[in-house]
Specification:
With 185 residues, the chain is an all-beta fold. 0% of the residues lie in helices and 71% in strands. The protein contains no helices and 17 strands. The strands form four sheets. A seven-stranded antiparallel β-sheet has the order 4-5-6-7-8-9-10, with no helix packed on it. A five-stranded antiparallel β-sheet has the order 13-14-15-16-17, with no helix packed on it. A hairpin with a 2-residue loop joins strand 6 and strand 7. The protein is globular. The relative contact order is 0.12. The mean pLDDT is 90.
């Protein structure tokens, strides 16, 4: 009898500048997420263990900058579960000056956190850690609850960056000052 082997892979749509993430079980597609803002199609998926994958995808941000986003993925009940979706790396180069902001998630049995590091022209200017919790019922990482349209949403806050899990697997940027959400792109 064949064991249940899960795998993730992506397919890039060059016309729409989006990717579709597929979950397979024993080489049969069982679930997918469409329209991921992978603008260049340069994605990578890293398997950490049988229940934890990391998906990195490049977004669009304009002249002189580049962005990479991060998803923490698991197959749960034969469905894709996006447990976390955040900005991973922001790089800006203008007139010879370079600034990099990197947000790295760390997971262990004793502690979960995201580090933020800012490097300007090769010199580290700031490093902070933001603790995050794991909601076992909803299978997501969060560190704050946000109100939007009179409903509460769990999400992540790192400095001025805020993300909410708006719908199943649909993480959004959240501006709590004006109560507006935007796609991660």
């Amino acid at each position: 009898m064949k064991s249940n082997e899960f795998k993730f892979y992506t397919k890039f749509d060059e016309i729409g500048r989006r990717s579709t993430l597929f979950l397979t079980k024993n080489d049969i597609i069982i679930d997918s997420i469409k329209n991921i803002g992978s603008y260049y199609g340069k994605d990578s998926i890293v398997k950490r263990n049988n229940n934890h994958w990391e998906y990195f995808y490049n977004g669009r941000c304009g002249t002189g900058c580049s962005v990479v986003y991060y998803m923490n993925l698991s197959p749960i009940d034969d469905k894709i579960k996006v447990k976390l979706n955040i900005l991973y790396k922001y790089k800006e180069v203008h007139y010879g000056n370079q600034m990099i902001k990197e947000y790295s998630p760390h997971f262990s049995s004793s502690r979960n956190y995201i580090t933020k590091v800012i490097v300007e022209n090769g010199i580290q200017k700031q490093k902070i850690e933001n603790e995050i919790k794991y909601d076992k019922k909803n299978h997501i990482y969060y560190n704050e609850v946000f109100e939007f349209n009179r409903l509460n949403y769990k999400g992540i806050k790192i400095d001025s960056l805020k993300y909410i899990l708006f719908k199943e697997n649909e993480w959004k940027f959240y501006d709590s000052d004006i109560k507006k959400i935007n796609d991660l792109k």
